Amino acid sequence: MKKDLISIKDLTAEEITGIFLLTDKLKKNKNKFAKALKGKTLGLIFQKPSNRTRVSFEVGCFQLGGNSLYLSPGEISLGVRESIADVAMTLSRYIDAIVLRTFEHNNCLEMARAATVPVINGLSDFSHPCQALADLYTVKEKFKSLKNITLSYIGDGNNVCNSLLFICAKLGVNIKVGSPDGYAPAESVLKDAMAFAKISGSTVNLFNNAKEAVKNADVIYTDVWASMGQEEEAKERKKIFGEFQVSSDLVSLANKDALIMHCLPAHRQEEITSEVLDSKNSVVFDQAENRMHVQKAILIKLL
Ligand code: CP
Ligand code: NVA
Question: In terms of pTM, does the model score above 0.85?
Answer without folding.
Answer: yes
